[in-house]
Structure formats: structure tokens, C-alpha cells
Amino acid sequence: LFPRAKASSLTTMENDQEIVGSLKHQLAKLFEESLRLTVPEESDVDPAIAPCQNPRFGDYQCNNAMGLWSKVKGKGTQFRGPQPIGQAIMNNLPASEMIDSCSIAGPGFVNVVLSRHWIAKSIRKMLVDGIETWAPKLPVKRAVVDFSSPNIAKEMHVGHLRSTIIGDTLARMLEYSNVEVLRRNHVGDWGTQFGMLIEYLFEKFPSGEVANDQAIGDLEAFYKASKQRFDSDPDFKERAQRAVVSLQAGDEKYRKAWSQICEISRKGYEKVYERLGVHLEEKGESFYNPYIPGALELLSQQGLIEESEGARVIFIEGKNIPLIVVKRDGGYNYASTDLAALWYRLNEEKAEWIIYVTDVGQREHFEMFFTAAKRAGWLPAEDDKYPKASHVGFGLVLGEDGKRFRTRSTETVKLVDLLDEAKSKCKAALIERGKDKEWTEEELDKTAEAVGYGAVKYADLKNNRTTNYTFSFDQMLNDKGNTAVYLLYAHARICSIIRRSRKDIEELKKTGTLDLVHPDERTLGLHLLQFAEIVEEACTNLFPNLLCEYLYNLSEDFTRFYTNCQVVGSAEETSRLLLCEATAVVMRKCFHLLGITPVYKI
Ligand code: ARG
């Protein structure tokens, strides 16, 4: 439940500040000690710590008593039931400044009320030492996140946008948790479609004169035109099939044409990545091609590969169709490439966690080749052990008509157009509010970009990724409700409160004291402190929506505090300004992890 970090990962921070771990983690440590004293005969019991369902009882609770009772009863234990076990767990808790008071509820739940002084102290410490000290501790050092991964010569579509946005966030959360992340763009740059593309390129440019960006700039049209030739002209089809053979044999002319096509595609993707602020390293399917024979040989030696209807396949228990790894014509496919890539990532790149972000439609594919890898012993059979492979599936993007998201002019929505539209709508809204008279053109543009792109990302990330979601500019650009616009404005408002006080916040951080006297101050403070465990949960379970939910609730807690507690000009001004600053710091970290650029004024 609480993965223990390796000692080395505690000291990887540059400023040498110790990572304190989440609140839940710190409480777990105390209860671990108490459990050891309470039931010494049950050595490896993990503390079960959770936030209290009902805040009237406390902030957190320890739920171990019942489980322990069923383990020890009838074994000559001194305890008479779960309740006395809970009592003993409570009594054996080591003294700690974290805890204000404890109580027992029901069959031995230990409720904990945290000390508000400790909450305040922890926040003060974070303000001084930096939010990096709140990073979660994860049990892995290196991970691969395989995301975005469009297919060459086809336009990136809105499904790839989801993969790009979700994958980037997961990578960011892992990086924040001191995991080294290999951000892999597994582009579809290999396969039989290249025969037809190359042949069509030769046909259009018979002189061998290289096509420039302009000529095949619209790759989707190029792809369609060549597909049409392929389907309608048997001669062309035959030449295309021969072209694949020449390409795979390494014929220079064909390799060159192939890399030209890839290069033009790549330029198109990079424009999108640049706009989204997403960094990726391309290792496409072609990269793993040389590793396929070796990987299949390993599987073969273990007797996993069988002959079936002329193809070479791996049968997977519980699945009707086998995983084809060599096609009937002797060629490799998506699955053979993925097996080789997995082998490479585990053995050459030494990744301990490999995460694939694609639509849920590919779940079967991943399940099958993960199972094959488990049978081969490349991955442990148990899902909670490392190295681990995880498929992060996501649902469809729907239009407001409830159908798959499309625009009239193209079959799939072009990403660049979508981002342009978000930005220009935001810019129009800012102009309507008169910002063009207050701000420079550059400020206007930068803000419109931050809000527009942020809105597109947040609208995607806030949903449970496995469900479909409806793409609606009206909804995502609304400045009320759970949207990036609302959250970015909330952050800007906090910054303006601090500015209006005319206090030097850096100075206050050093000298000011923080106390959480008002109940709304305490609630906000506790919420801030829960940041680390939310990030930990979001990246352990691969659900970015948990972080969005946290951020939205945080801004609501802030609003309640700000409504009920005067900040500027009050007797508690210093303390409350520090609480404002801490909220802004945590909000900014959330934005950062979600790939959203914060704005400081509105
Ligand atoms: N290119 C694939 C697609 O567009 C996604 C690749 C995902 N990564 C992988 N290792 N299979 O559907």
C-alpha cells in the first residue's frame, strides 16, 4: 500500500532538501510502529490509513483493527475483539507533533485529529524549502511512457491528442516523483503501407527530384491518393508490394524516399507538440525492427510460439484468437514490434515501469502481449510487482451531437485548427473584457494561448479517462464551473490579493508566522498538505482526473476561506498572505503537472 522508496531516491534533489513524503505516508510510519508493538507476532502488516469519511470524527483513520482481529483470534491472543485491538493501536502510537488527538470508533477504527500547528508548520516549511520536498516516493527509478504515437503519413487526430495530453501529464507526475522518464513517441513508421506511399512518390516525381514539403505537405491527401491507386490499379499494387521488399532489404533509393515521407510527417507533429509544450523522443516502430527476430527467438525457445494456419502465433489462455507474431507471408506486425520494443525497454533501457497510452480499443492487444511477456518470464505474474507494464486506455472524443468528433470539412479534426480556435476564442473574450487596452499585444496573445490550450487539456484530463467525453468549446471556455479558465482565473486572483497587500512575500516567508485559527483556514491548510498523496495516487493508478478534482476542490476551499476570512488589512494579514501564497504555489504545481501554463493576472 505504501511503496517504500529506495534510500538513494531520497537524496536525488539538488538542493539536498529531504523529501518528506505525503501526509498519509508520515502517518503510516507512526502506525507502522504502533502495529509492531501491538501485534508483534504479525510482522508484515501494512498500515491501512485513509481520510475520515466524516470529518466530525477526525482527519484520518487507521483501519487495521478488524483485519488484525481475524488474523489473531483463536490463536491465544490477549485481545477480546477488534475494539480492544484498536484501543491498543491507539495507545501504542509513538508521541508525535503531527497528532492532536485520537479516538476509537466502531469496531476499532482509530480516528486521528491532526495538529493545526503541525499543519501550519509543514506548509511554512514547504514555502521555504520548495514544493519539490512534497514529491511522492515511488518504488521505481526509471519508466517509459509510450504516448502520442501517431502514424506516419496520416494526420494526427483527436485520439492522438488525448494520448499526447494524458501521456504528458503522467510523465510530468512521474518526473516530479523523481522517476526518470523516457518519453517515447512510438510512431507508426513501418509496415506495408510504405510500399504504396513510396511508389506513389516515385510516380509523382519520376525524375527522382525530391518532393518538397509543399508537394506532399498534405500527407493525409497524399495517403488517400496513393491508397486509391493501390486499390484500383493491379500494376501499381504489384509495384507497391515489391517496394516494401526493397525497403526492407535496405535499398538506398527506397530508404531515402521512406525517410523523406517520415521527415515531412515529423515536422507536422512537431508543430503540435511545440504548441502543447510537450516533449517527446521519437523511437518509431522501425527502430525495433532489427530486434524482432531475437525477441521472437527467445519466445520460441520457451515453446511459446506455435504454427497456426501458416502463421506463427502465441496462444493466450482465455482468448479465442491467438496473438499473431509472424504473418502468413512471413512479415512482422504490430504485435511483433511491441514484443521487441518491450524486450528492448526492459533489457536495454532498464525501465521498471512501461506505460502505454492509447484508446481503449487497443486493450485486447495490450492484454495479450503482456500475458505473453508474463509467460516468458519477462514480467512477473503478479500485477503489483515490478517491472510492470500498464495500458492506460482512454475513451472516444464525441462531438456535441454525441457522435465521434468530426468537423464538416475533414473526417478527423485537425489538431492545429482546434488549438487555433481555442486560442482565438479566448482572445476574443479577453478583448471583450477590455484587456486589449490594458495589455500589450504580446501579453494578450500569451494569455489567450495559456487559457485556450489549458482549456483543451483540462477538459480532457478532468474526466475519468476510460469514458468518452464530449468536446465543447462553450463548456471548456466557460469561466464558471470545473474548467481551466475558472481555475486559471482563481489563481490570478490569489496573485492579485498578494500584490494588493504591497507586502514582500519572499520576506514574509522568511520571517512571518502562519497559524490556522479559523476553521476555513484549517480546512484549506489540510487540503494543501494532501497534495502529495493525491499526486501519488494519480500516478500510481494512472488517473490524472484525481489531480484535477483535487485542484478544483482546492480552489473551492480557497474561495470559502477568502469569503469568510479577511486577508488584506486584517490582524492576521501576514499569516493569511502566507496561506494565499501556499495555495498559489500548490495550484501552480498542479497546473505544471497538468501541462497548463499559469496566468498571473486577469
Ligand atoms: N500508432 C498507434 C496508433 O496510432 C499507437 C502506438 C501505441 N504504442 C505501442 N507501443 N503500441 O494507434
Automatic annotation (TrEMBL):
Q: Which reaction does it catalyse?
A: tRNA(Arg) + L-arginine + ATP = L-arginyl-tRNA(Arg) + AMP + diphosphate
Q: What is the scientific name of the source organism?
A: Rehmannia glutinosa (Chinese foxglove)
- What keywords were assigned to this record? Aminoacyl-tRNA synthetase, ATP-binding, Ligase, Nucleotide-binding, Protein biosynthesis
Q: What is this protein called?
A: arginine--tRNA ligase
A Pfam family that the UniProt record links to this protein: Arg_tRNA_synt_N
- Annotated DALR anticodon binding domain ranges read 487-602
What top-level class of enzyme does the UniProt entry assign? ligase
Task: Look up the coiled coil feature and give its residue ranges.
Answer: none
UniProt EC number: 6.1.1.19
Q: Does the keyword ATP-binding apply?
A: yes
Checking HAMAP family in the record gives: Arg_tRNA_synth (MF_00123)
Query: Which classification does the entry list for the species?
Result: Eukaryota, Viridiplantae, Streptophyta, Embryophyta, Tracheophyta
